[in-house]
Amino acid sequence: MRTALAAWGLEDQIDDAMVIVTELVSNAVEHGRLASIRVIVSRPTEGWVRLGVVDRSKSIPMMRTDSNGDQVRGRGLVLVNALTERWGTDLYRWGKQVWGELKYEPVR
C-alpha cells in the first residue's frame, strides 16, 4: 500500500491510509475469523483512493454509536469514518469488501 501511494505521488496520504487499513484488517480478522483476507488499494476515479479489505464473511460491519466506555477495542470503524471521506461495504455472494476512500487533489 505504501508503495502504491508513493508511486502515485500521494505520500501525504500514507499515515491515514495505514490507520484505515490496519483497522479494516483488524475487523476482518476479529469478526470474520477466516483463514484469509485480501487488501486492495485502487484509484477508482481521479481524485480518490480506495482502501479495501476483502474477506469471505457475509457479516456486515456496523459502526458503534455508543462511547464503549473505557474499552480500547471496538472503535475501528469510528476511526475509519473520521479519516475517510466515505466508507462502505460491498456484498458479494461469497463474502464482502469493506472500504474507505480518501480524496486528494490531482496534480495538473
Notes on the structure:
The protein has 108 residues and is of the alpha+beta class. It has a single domain (2-103), classed as 2-Layer Sandwich (Heat Shock Protein 90), CATH 3.30.565.10. It contains 3 helices and 4 strands. The protein has a 4-stranded antiparallel sheet with strand order 1-2-4-3, covered by helices on one side. A hairpin with a 5-residue loop joins β1 (38-42) and β2 (48-55). The chain is globular and about 40 Å long. The relative contact order is 0.22.
CATH architecture classification name? 2-Layer Sandwich
Q: Quick check: average pLDDT?
A: 90
N to C succession of SSEs: HHEEHEE
The total strand number stands at: 4
Q: Could you name the CATH class?
A: Alpha Beta
State which percent range the strand residues make up. 25-35%
What structural class is derived from the secondary structure elements? alpha+beta
First-to-last CA distance = 23 Å
The main pleated sheet reads as: 4 strands, antiparallel
Going across the biggest sheet, name each strand in turn: 1-2-4-3
